[in-house]
Structure formats: structure tokens, C-alpha cells
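hey m, so remember when u said the C-alpha cells were messed up on ur end? i reran from scratch. heres the input so u can diff it against urs
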Amino acid sequence: MTTVPSKDHLLSRIADARDDLVALTRDLIRIPTINPPGDGYAPCSELIGARLAQRGFTVEYLRAEGGLGDSDRYPRTNVIGRIEGGAPGRCIHFNSHIDVVAPGSGWTVDPFAAEMRGDRIYGRGACDMKGGLAASIVAVEALLSLWPDFPGAIEISGTVDEETGGYAGVAFLAERGYFSRPRVDYVIIPEPLHKDCVCLGHRGVWWAEVEVAGRIAHGSMPFLGTSAIRGMGAFLDKIERDLYPALNQRRTTMPVIPEDARFSTLNLNSIHGGLDETEAGFPAALVADSCRLVLDRRYLIEESEEEVRREIVGLLEAVRAERPDFRYELRELWSVPPVMTDADSPLVRALDRGIEQVLGRPARHVASPGTYDQKHVQRVGQLRDCVAYGPGILDLAHQPDEYVGIDDMIAAAQVMAAAMIDLLDGTGDGG
């Protein structure tokens, strides 16, 4: 077996791969894998799979047939490549989602041209997270070039639908054992949470819809009906007066970024009430008999989902006590509890050492304000050793003129590679 390569040699090899890293990132961005509806998944998976196959990986394409969103027009095609080393050992898995959100308006460049300006590559998905995917591939390739008979195994996956919950992607694969021991020991998700940060987990989410029922009547005689909009207004007033002040007092010990996300939050996603205007734009002369509100509640590891739900029901019941004609229905749409990997995990410690070596400063431990696919690895795959680490600035995700820095991708790839040496070698220093 070849000796463990020096980290300095490995980092140099990655720096020399700069042009290759740039080309791969641009190729990935140029495939518009917009979700919804799920465009371009098969071509993007095939691009990744072909490259991995050329490097000696065994490649599988796994379509989530029958899964959420899957159809012949928009097949949910995932790709996983695996390469075995020269001896038994641990398996490290790099997982990246290939889907991106719609570009939206406000761009000054073509969102799928992968235009370069100085040290930056612009495009939808550059930051979130095709730059991270490319960095992980180049990191692994550099390691294989210097240590072809490493102990253990390495996997790289490109999965779908993270932007809409990940159920045809990581969740689908986790249900089939692709993110569980003994197949996999460590999972790194190269989400854009800053190159000097190891992301240990994320807050919880609870989405719900509240529908208030009224009674229709002529708009000139509203006293003969019951306005669902007024009823919803009373509920919103309770939220403003009672709930928001309470949420602002709850602060987590989780290292969530940005700082304001260390508190419990509630976003009012949308509200729909009354009848639509006619085609001519003239409003209907009717009392609104229905009003719906969608809630997006992000909660802390110190809170429980039941407490979150009970709090909303308490406000609704308080309105009903004050307004005898108030009728409502609460529908829970989606929920994910908070997840948090132990900061003393070998995976976290290996990335910490890599960050300190590459960047010359201690790593920061953070947590994400929103969820990502770690939830499925931990809850479905029952694999605790999973974190997010990758290049890019979190604030740029989903924004116009999204970009990823080339130097940041190089540095992140170097950190990943240095961590791989420690985790595969098992000595804690890797030479």
C-alpha cells in the first residue's frame, strides 16, 4: 500500500487543478436544473456520472420512480459514484443537491451562462450548491491521484429536490440504505455556509395552514354575513401582540447564523381571502366566506413540535373565545425537527483541523437557519456523523447575481481533502 500523502502535497495538487475546477463548475451551472418543476436532472446526473466513471468509480443512476414529483417528463434522477480503496476502512460520502431555484428577476448576467468576473463565477446554483459539488469532486480526484490504494471507500452523489424537501432525493436513497452504516460512516454536504465554518445542523420547521370560515352575504349588508377576513385579522392581531414578543425572548444555544436566527421565528408565507376580482377587474360585492393563511414557523432545539403547535392552537382558541362566530381549521403541512451533530464527532474534528491548516485560523461551528438534507441522513439513515461544509456565502443563495468565489472553492476543496486523509488514515493527523 502506498504511504499516506502529505497534506501539503495534496493541497498543492488541488491548487494546480484550478482551471479544471472552474470548468466543471461552469459546466454544472449551464445545465438549468430548475426545481420546480425538476428540469435537467438526467443530463446533470449523467455529466457527474460520466466524470466519476472515468476516474474509476462504480456509478448508479437511481430514479425515484413513483416518488414525490417524479414523472416521465420530469424524472427524479439521482446519481451515486463509489470507489473502493486498497483495504477495508471507513466510507466518506460527499452529497450535493443538483437542483436550483428559479432565477427570478433582477439579474445583470445570464443566470445560466456561468459568466466569470475576476475571482467569481456567476449563475443560478453557483453558490447553492454546484460550486460545492465541483469542489468535492476535485478534492476526491486529487486524493486518488496521490493515494490510489487508500483504505476504505469514497462516495460522491448528486441528488434531486433538496429545494422542495429532498423526498425524491436524499430521503428516497436513505430509505434504501444509501446513507446508513455499514455502507457509509461520514457524510459531508457542501452547502454554502462559509469556508471557515462547519455546520453542525439546523433549526426545526413547522408549516401549517389556518383557514377561517365565514358566511357569505351581500357586500352592502355585511351585517348579514360573517367576514372570514375580519376573523383572520383578529388572529393576526393575536400573533402580533402575543406571539412575536414571546418568540423574540427565546434564544437557542445552537450556533445558528445569522445572529438574528438564534431566536424563534415565524414567517407569514401567504394569505388568501375572499373572491377574486372579475376578468374586468371589478371586485365581487360579497362578504368573504373564507380566508387562508400559511405559517412558516422555525423553532429551536430547546422547543418541541407539540409546543409549537399548541401555541398556535392557543391563539386560535383565544380568538374563538372572544368572537363566537369565529370558526377555523388548522392543517399541518410539513414538519422537521432540529438536528445537531456532536461537535466532538471525528468528522467535525477532522474538518476543524483542515480549516485551521488551510485558512490559518480556527474553525467556527455554526447551524443553519433553514433545513437541508442532513435531516434525512440523520432521521431516516440514522447516521449522526453528518455535517455541512462547503464554499460560498449563505446570504447569496436564491439571490439575483448569485456567485461563488474560485479561491473559496479551492480552499474548501483543500479542507475536504485534508479531512479525508485524517478520516481514512484514522491516525488523527494524516501525516
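this time it looks ok to me. The chain has two domains: 7-202+339-425, 204-336. if urs says something different then somethings off w ur setup not the seq
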